[in-house]
Design goal:
This protein has 208 residues and is an alpha/beta fold. It has one domain: Nuclear Transport Factor 2, Chain: A. The protein contains five helices and six strands. The protein has a six-stranded mixed β-sheet with strand order 1-3-4-5-6-2, covered by helices on one side. Helix 1 runs antiparallel to helix 3, helix 3 packs antiparallel against helix 4 and helix 4 crosses helix 5. It starts with a helix and ends in an 8-residue tail after the last strand.
Length: 208
């Protein structure tokens, strides 16, 4: 039986499938040269684990989006299935089971700028929560590809922080670039969880 892309994405995020070295290591391109992580030894986290966690996040975002609009040609959108998948991804990738996550999404406003709770994160990704009326579902915007270009990676014992650009391509081929910072913490079971996630649109200086 062949696994669906959505299922594979969730399994990758949850660590239930092994990621091949080619998936775990960043690809070097002229626009995104390879960097070497700063690693303070001894450390419980490897650079490959960090890159794999980042890739799992990107794959999961695409999986949620394609789950939502897989029957778009028939004029049907499945928010319930997308929400179910998003909940699994959040429970697997984020550390809300540990405590508040320092999550500042790209497109949130006062008074709900920061999403330190699971409910707030789920509402941001898939919308549909009357407690968060401004959320339309960031993960439901037709995303098809995610590329991550790290500016730096810092690993110290059981935590790792990354900063760089994330390029997200939609089904029309349009690319949205965001500046993103993550901090991953290795929990008691040895799994990386996102405890800090800050995302913002790049600053554009005024002309003149």
């Amino acid at each position: 039986m062949k696994s669906s892309p959505a299922l594979v994405a969730v399994l990758a995020v949850t660590g239930l499938v092994a990621l091949s070295p080619s998936n775990a290591l960043a690809q070097s391109t002229p626009d995104c040269p390879a960097i070497k992580a700063t690693l303070l030894k001894p450390s419980a986290i490897s650079e490959a684990e960090v890159l794999a966690a980042q890739k799992g996040w990107g794959d999961a975002l695409v999986a949620i989006s394609t789950t939502y609009d897989k029957n778009e040609k028939d004029g049907k959108y499945d928010q319930a299935a997308a929400k179910e998948l998003a909940a699994k991804v959040i429970d697997s990738a984020y550390g809300y089971n540990i405590g508040p996550v320092l999550f500042k999404p790209t497109l949130t406003t006062v008074p709900q700028t920061f999403r330190t709770t699971r409910a707030g994160a789920l509402a941001y990704f898939v919308g549909g929560d009357p407690a968060f009326p401004g959320d339309t579902g960031f993960a439901l915007k037709g995303w098809r590809k995610v590329n991550i270009c790290n500016a730096a990676i810092f690993i110290d014992q059981d935590s790792a922080s990354t900063m760089g650009k994330v390029m997200i391509t939609n089904k029309k081929g349009e690319v949205t670039t965001v500046d993103k910072t993550w901090t991953f913490v290795k929990d008691g079971s040895g799994k990386l969880r996102i405890m800090v996630h800050h995302s913002s649109l790049p600053y554009v200086a005024a002309k003149g």
